[in-house]
Design brief:
The protein is built from seven helices and two strands; from the N terminus they run ααααββααα. By secondary structure, the chain is mostly helical. The longest helix is centred in the first third of the chain and has 26 residues. It is elongated and about 60 Å long.
């Protein structure tokens, strides 16, 4: 069993600063990947597409809850994504009075293409890490994501 490194400051403040720095890098990678595919898509819009890709068709209230934003905000975003041909509204087969939102064929292709680009760019960064620096990274990031209630990424 490995011993903790006494030279590493694991205080919440230092960890938070390190995660903020890593977050800036990941946001930059995401923004670049999205822009390479479709420069009109914003990061919040892409997050909406990713949620629909992971969870399948959702009604507006469920989508808003998953995105942790107000339904009115989600409604406006859905309108823009429908107009862009990235998502579709259709009747809920379980309730004709309800509409569900799902990815269009184009939306699925965009999610796949952006995700592939993100994966390649992140893999390039990871490949530059020393093996000793990679140790524990998966465990730490998995624990962090779980604590934030973010579901795991789809396997490559």
């Amino acid at each position: 069993m490995s011993q903790p490194d006494p030279d590493v400051d694991d205080s919440p403040e230092v960890i938070t600063d390190a995660l903020l720095t890593a977050s800036r890098l990941l946001v930059a990678i995401s923004a670049r990947s999205i822009a390479e595919v479709d420069e009109t898509i914003t990061i919040p819009q892409f997050r909406t597409l990713v949620v629909l890709s992971a969870e399948g068709p959702l009604n507006l209230a469920a989508l808003a809850a998953r995105l942790q934003v107000q339904p009115s905000t989600t409604g406006r975003m859905v309108d823009r994504l429908v107009a862009a041909g990235l998502i579709e509204r259709r009747p809920n087969p379980a309730s004709r009075r309800e509409v569900v939102i799902d990815l269009s064929r184009r939306g699925k292709a965009v999610v796949r293409s952006v995700t592939d680009r993100r994966r390649d760019q992140i893999a390039a960064v990871v490949s530059r890490l020393r093996p000793v620096d990679r140790r524990g990274l998966v465990r730490a990031l998995t624990a962090f994501s779980a604590a934030g209630q973010e579901p795991p990424a789809a396997p490559s």
